[in-house]
Amino acid sequence: MAQIIDLSQEIFQGMGVYPGHLKTVIWEHASHEETRSRFEGGFSFQSWGIMLCDHGPTHVDAISHLDPRPEAPTIDRMPLETFFGPGTCIDVSHKVPHSYITADDLTAASEGADLQPGDVLLLYTATYDRYYGKPEYTNQYPGLDESGASWLLERGVKIFGVDSPSPDNPISRTYPVHMMCRERGMTHYENLCNLDQLVGRRFTFLGLPLRIRGGTGSPVRAVAILDA
Predict the structure, then answer these.
(1) How far apart are CA 16 and CA 208, in angstroms?
(2) CATH number 3.50.30.50 given to 59-226
């Protein structure tokens, strides 16, 4: 039987979000107590209202988030095939916050990994392990430099993801990874978790977005499926 590893962070009020993004707000919209009087036979229901950024929790970017051209596809117009496929995970957790992950770092980290063209590639930075639930999570992590972004293209990576708020360094003013994604029509996942369980392993990745009309991104329930 296949093993499923959850790669998605929890969604809750007060969760950390990338600086400048909408904060997550959750409230009780209807309670069992107030709805019980509307029905007979004891039926009642409860529901919550949720307000969140389409880039708040574990999510995938739409090309329109990165590309200002009117024809850049929004999340509802991106092919579903984009969001799943075979992949692997490499360990770059030795890189300290605000340092740059270079092409040489990725080459060293991928030694022994069965990375194939067209793969989903996940980068284990250990940011989630170190800082999740703390203010540092939103600003203390490493990111790829231009050589690292080019390395992803040279290896034929289909889509990639990180267990931090961004694949770009938080001190960067140029965002080379996002710019590469804009130029090449590639997208990526942010705020993943549990990547330590996947380092060096082959798996099937699945992270389908919500069908948000005109969305610039979408929360996802990302998982890795491992053969028994």
Answers:
(1) 22
(2) yes
Residues forming a β-bridge with 100: 143
Cα distance between residue 122 and residue 43, in whole Å: 46
Beta partners for residue 28, in sequence order: 48
Q: Could you tell me if 207 and 60 are in contact, meaning their C-beta atoms sit under 8 angstroms apart? A: yes
Q: What is the pLDDT of residues 146-179, one digit of tens each?
A: 999 999 999 999 999 999 999 999 999 999 999 9
Contact between 161 and 189 under an 8 Å Cβ cutoff? The reply is yes
Ramachandran class of 197: left when φ > 0, alpha when ψ lies in -120 to 50, beta otherwise: alpha
Closest CA to 93 of 148, 137, 130, 136: 130
Question: How far apart are alpha carbons 126 and 215 in whole angstroms?
Answer: 29
